[in-house]
Amino acid sequence: MSIFNDVADRKRAEDALRESEEKLRNIVENSTNVFYSHTPDQRLVYLSPQFEKIFGYDPKDRMLLWTETLTDNPANQKGIHATEEAIRTGKPQPTYELELKAKDGRKIWVEVNESPVVRDGKTVMIVGALQDITQRKKAEKERMEMERRFQQSQKLESLGIMAGGIAHDFNNLLTAILGNLDLAILGGVQNPRSQSFLEQARKATLRASDLTSQMLAYSGKGKFHVKTFNLSGLVDEMAGLLKASISKTVSLSLNTDQSIPSIKADPAQIQQIIMNLIVNASEAIGGNPGIISIATGVQNCDERCLEQSRLREKPRPGLYVFLEVKDTGCGMDEKTMERLFDPFFTTKFTGRGLGMAAVLGIVEAHQGAIMLQSEPGRGTAIRVLFPALASEEAADAAGKGGMPSAGAFTPRPEYAADTVLVVDDEEMVLDLCTAMVEQLGFHVLRASDGREAVDVFRRHAAEITLVILDLTMPRMDGAQAFHELKRIRSDVKVIVSSGFSEQEVSHHFPEDEPAAFIEKPFEFKNLQKKIGMVMEKG
Ligand SMILES: Nc1ncnc2c1ncn2[C@@H]1O[C@H](COP(=O)(O)OP(=O)(O)OP(=O)(O)O)[C@@H](O)[C@H]1O
Ligand SMILES: [Mg+2]
Questions:
Q1: Nearest ligand, CA of residue 350?
Q2: Higher pLDDT, residue 343 or 263
């Protein structure tokens, strides 16, 4: 009886084992996952049949070294490393992805989940499961491609908006310039009304140049004349101008700290920032009564404080000088704050959306920071920070001194005997510059590139007092022409004219500097001043 029972028990146990093995095999062999195990030296011990279905290998080469199915995709290194780590440490590693080759060469992405089997502290086996994720990867790639295309189209769209914005503004200004010039020509130069048309054309031109300077400031390629100065002094000097720029209903409160350290910056660009902020503040208040407060001060900023900056580049911790413009205007919601610095983003009917873009460009170029606080209906505070100069740096800079300031130039009759060589490849600019120099009483010789300039100079070297030389020209550029002229007559006086900033231009003349630089577009009085300065020097 007991023997019978024993046999029956064993049979039952065997049946149960077989049943559970079969269940397990059913799961393993019918799963869409591939199960495997391999030794630490990568020999396969088990590979479930699903592998053949996915990879198409014959059952006989099913036990091949699985590593041979790896493609040479560098992304696979991560997985190879994870397996090595699992073998070395005996600890399971995070899931990883591999790119494998099917028998017909198709690439198949799998996600691998594996763990080491450890005996006596040593890894004896790796067991794991692969899942075919090729479809998922494909969908992911498509989504990324879609996103990329979407971003591209957004970029194109904003480029379109930008080009449209610029074209629109310039068209209006050009219309004003052209129309007023036409009227002046029709009326005749002597006609007093023509004078006012000309004045209008001039105003429109200055506005066009203001537009380009805002755009150049945004791109960080604006004119840059770095000086050492006190921000509070600059704000105080501007007080009159600021009062004139805001609406009559708004009162301005100035609170400048006179004891702040100096900064090293371009004062013209800092003025541009102040103006842009003040005008925005005034426009935010609209025609209503309100207050704009301007304050300057000094602030010690650590990394955490500078994290708050709205600029992508966070400057280094240290001492900063700040300018804050606070208004009691309409304030901004989150959406507006996010787009505040986008070029051509505006919520105003006549806005160009360039003011804050220019502020961003200038502050970035000065390695500064911008803090922003605003709430709809409660007003806005914008604080721009510039790195403060250590006191000895400031003293050094003060010692050097700037350029001597030119006295007022009065046209002198003796210029009638002097000859100026004007060189420019742009005919319009050449004509204009010729006319300006003639207006001053000089005799003018002209050349339209460096080569021609050198030829003319060689023939007239004795009589030419001054050369006004464009920098970018075909055949021979200004820098090279300058050296040739110096070789002919070492004491020749040259004013270099260029659309680039003086700082940039000076790189072209590393050893021998020209007598002066003038930036295009230049106004008559500017050229007059430069010529006066150069003539007085020697
Ligand atoms: N102080 C402020 N208060 C409320 N909103 C502001 C303030 N400053 C800027 N904004 C918002 O940010 C937008 C962009 O300002 P930005 O100065 O760049 O352009 P704009 O003033 O519209 O035009 P532009 O300055 O070129 O004439 C504004 O249209 C406005 O919606
Ligand atoms: Mg503005």
A1: 1
A2: 263
